[in-house]
Specification:
This protein is α/β, with parallel strands linked by helices. The chain has twelve helices and 13 strands. Strand 3, helix 1 (33-46) and strand 4 (50-55) form a beta-alpha-beta unit. Helix 1 (33-46) packs parallel to helix 4, helix 1 packs parallel to helix 10 (257-274) and helix 6 (141-148) packs parallel to helix 7 (163-175). The longest helix has 18 residues, at 257-274.
Length: 351
C-alpha cells in the first residue's frame, strides 16, 4: 500500500485510526441556504468528521434538452429531464463561500465533489482540503487528472465501475500526482439494497488496487456501514438530511439526526472492537478469574487417605489448580488432614 493513512484537515484516516465519517449534504438543502447551514450544524453535533457538498450547475453537467436521452426513466426521478433535476439539486456557487465560512466557524471540515474543471478552480480558491470524485464521474479521467494536480487528498467512489475502470481511475489519480487516495466501494442505487453491496469486495479492493478503502453507503439504515468497518473500511460516507420527508431529491434515502448520531457512535465502537490479534487475558476479565472451575477437596480427607474422584472435584470458584490436573492427583496419598472446601494446591500434587 502506498501509505497506511492519509490526512485531511489534520485528521489521520486509515490504519490505526477510527473511521472517518462524511455527512453528504448533496441536494438536501432543498434550495434554502439556511437549511444547508442547519445540516452543517447537525453534522457537527452528531460527531461527523466532515460535511461534503457537490459543486456543479445544470449547465456544467448537461444541456437543456427534452429528448428521451435526457429523460430519467424509473426510480425516484422518473420522467424528469436531467437539466430540470440538476437545476433543482445543484448547490448555487455563490453559496460555497458562506458554507465554507460556516463550517470553519462550527469546527467541521468541508470539501466537495467537483464535476468539471471550473468547479475545481472554485474550490481551490476556497481552500478545499480534499476532493471527492463521485461514482458517475469515476470514468472522467481528465477530471481525475485535473484534481490530482492540486496535490490534495482524493476520494473516489466506484458505483457502477468495473475492475478495469477502477484501475484506470486509480492510475489517473496516482500518475497525476495524488499521493493520498481512498477508494470507496459503492452501489449507485438510490436507495440501494443491502444485498447488492457484497462487502467482501472491500478487502479485495484494498489488496487488488493497493489503496485505502471505505464505503459510500446508499442503504436506508446503518447496518451495512457499520459492518464495513469490520472489513477494513476507514471511511464512511452517508447522505444526511433534516427531514427524510422533506421532499428534496435525496431526502428519502438520507439519514436524519438520530441515525447520524448512531452511525458516528457505532462505527467507532465497531472499530474499537476490531482492535488487533490478541490472546492475552483482558483487564475486564481479570476479576472474573475466580469464577472459573478449579480442583477442590469436597469431602474431608484424613492424613494418609487417597485422593479420589469422590473427595476431589472440579468446581467453582477458581482458587485451586486447573481441572486438567485431576488425573495427576487421583491416587496420591494426602500428607495431612484436609477439610472439605479446601482448594487443591500445586504443593499437593508436587508441581
Amino acid at each position: 500500500m502506498k501509505t497506511n493513512y492519509i490526512e485531511i484537515d489534520g485528521r489521520k484516516i486509515g490504519h490505526g485510526n477510527p473511521p472517518y465519517i462524511i455527512a453528504e449534504l448533496s441536494a438536501n438543502h432543498n434550495g434554502d441556504i439556511n437549511r444547508a447551514f442547519d445540516i452543517l450544524k447537525m453534522a457537527k453535533e452528531c460527531g461527523a468528521d466532515a460535511i461534503k457538498i457537490q459543486t456543479y450547475t445544470q449547465d456544467t453537467l448537461t444541456i437543456d434538452c427534452d429528448k428521451d436521452d435526457f429523460k430519467i426513466k424509473g426510480g425516484l426521478w422518473d420522467n424528469r429531464t436531467l437539466y430540470d433535476l440538476y437545476t433543482e439539486a445543484h448547490m448555487p456557487w455563490e453559496w460555497h463561500e458562506p458554507l465554507f465560512k460556516k463550517a470553519n466557524e462550527l469546527g467541521i471540515t468541508i470539501f466537495s465533489s467537483p464535476f468539471d474543471f471550473t468547479a475545481v478552480d472554485l474550490l481551490e480558491e476556497l481552500g478545499a482540503p480534499a476532493y471527492k470524485i463521485a461514482s458517475f464521474e469515476a470514468i472522467d479521467i481528465p477530471l481525475i487528472e485535473y484534481v490530482a494536480k492540486t496535490g490534495k487528498p482524493m476520494i473516489i467512489s466506484t458505483g457502477m465501475a468495473d475492475e478495469e475502470e477502477i484501475q484506470e481511475a486509480v492510475d489517473a489519480a496516482r500518475n497525476g500526482g495524488c499521493n493520498e487516495l481512498v477508494v470507496l466501494h459503492c452501489v449507485s442505487g438510490y436507495p440501494a439494497p443491502a444485498e447488492d453491496y457484497n462487502l467482501a469486495t472491500i478487502p479485495d479492493m484494498a489488496q487488488r488496487f493497493d489503496v485505502l478503502t471505505g464505503l459510500s453507503d446508499h442503504t436506508i439504515d446503518n447496518t451495512t456501514a457499520i459492518a464495513s468497518v469490520a472489513l477494513g473500511a476507514c471511511m464512511i460516507e452517508k447522505h444526511v438530511t433534516l427531514d427524510r420527508n422533506g421532499g428534496g431529491p435525496d431526502d428519502s434515502f438520507s439519514l436524519e439526526k438520530p441515525e447520524l448520531i448512531q452511525l458516528c457512535r457505532d462505527s467507532k465502537i465497531a472499530w474499537q472492537a476490531m482492535g488487533k490479534v490478541n490472546y492475552e487475558r483482558k483487564e475486564s476479565e481479570k476479576n472474573n478469574m475466580i469464577f472459573r472451575r478449579s480442583l477442590y477437596v469436597v469431602k474431608d480427607i484424613a492424613k494418609g487417605e487417597l485422593f479420589t474422584q469422590v473427595n476431589v472435584r472440579s468446581i467453582r470458584p477458581g482458587y485451586g489448580v486447573k481441572p486438567k490436573y485431576l488425573k495427576e492427583i487421583i491416587g496420591l496419598t494426602s500428607k495431612k488432614d484436609i477439610k472439605a472446601g479446601t482448594p487443591v494446591t500445586e504443593e499437593m500434587i508436587g508441581l
